[in-house]
């Protein structure tokens, strides 16, 4: 199964997995306290979450049947977060983004890794 551009659902899953890993690296570099005080950290975390949502949106749009086969991924949630960040809402709640980055993103990351591993992907 490929899209018109030759991209497969597993290509997009690998992109989501990589974006989740980037988000984890970002959160390991600082704390909620420093996030609230540092604009660069706010931008880094916002962009990391935005990228996850963008890849999830592409998967939903290009492969709705495939996406529907994995309801545990709850791909609409990262897409909604991406829209909230990308469309210039000036009142982002950084404590909420921190919770998303440190709880929801790791859960999505683990689920994506399970799917890729079950499909025979080597994630080492």
UniProtKB/TrEMBL annotation:
GO molecular function annotation: hydrolase activity; nucleotide binding; RNA nuclease activity
Q: Which domain of life is it from?
A: Bacteria
Q: Give the signal peptide range.
A: none
Keywords attached to this entry: Hydrolase, Nuclease, Nucleotide-binding, Phosphoprotein, Toxin-antitoxin system
- On whether Transit peptide is a keyword of this UniProt record, the answer is no
The record's annotation in Pfam families points to: HepT-like (PF01934)
- GO CC, any one term: toxin-antitoxin complex
The identity of this protein, by name, is: DUF86 domain-containing protein
């Amino acid at each position: 199964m490929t899209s018109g551009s030759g991209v497969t659902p597993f290509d997009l899953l690998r992109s989501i997995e990589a974006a989740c890993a980037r988000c984890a690296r970002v959160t390991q570099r600082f704390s909620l306290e420093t996030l609230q005080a540092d604009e660069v950290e706010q931008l880094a975390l916002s962009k990391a979450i935005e990228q996850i949502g963008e890849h999830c949106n592409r998967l939903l749009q290009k492969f709705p049947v495939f996406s529907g086969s994995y309801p545990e991924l709850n791909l609409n949630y990262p897409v909604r977060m991406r829209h909230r960040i990308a469309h210039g809402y000036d009142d982002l709640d950084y404590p909420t983004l921190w919770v998303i980055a440190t709880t929801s993103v790791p859960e999505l990351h683990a689920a994506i890794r399970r799917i890729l591993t079950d499909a025979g992907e080597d994630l080492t």
